[in-house]
Amino acid sequence: METNEFKQYVRTGQAEMRHYVKDEDIRDISVSLEDNPDIDMGMIARNPKNHKDQWYVARKYFEDNFAAKNKTTLSNNNKEVLWKYF
Predict the structure, then answer these.
(1) How far apart are CA 33 and CA 27, in angstroms?
(2) Tell me, what's the pLDDT at 13?
(3) What distance in Å separates the CA atoms of residue 26 and residue 20, rounded to the nearest whole number?
(4) Would the pTM count as exceeding 0.70?
(5) What percent of the chain has pLDDT over 70?
């Protein structure tokens, strides 16, 4: 198998995330060069087993792929409600 071949996977665990806070110090958070947290205002994710392992999640990706645990999954028409819940 080639190492550059992408395949689709389904998450089997939970994600721990919080809102990015404008102008916060993100030196210890992995951020892709394509992302701009101060404009996008996405989420900061962390590894539940290693809280120092943190990365930025773009807002659109978060909205398209995540829902609050123990809350009713909202339809695409209600994504803004979900965003405000956090």
Answers:
(1) 13
(2) 85
(3) 9
(4) yes
(5) 78
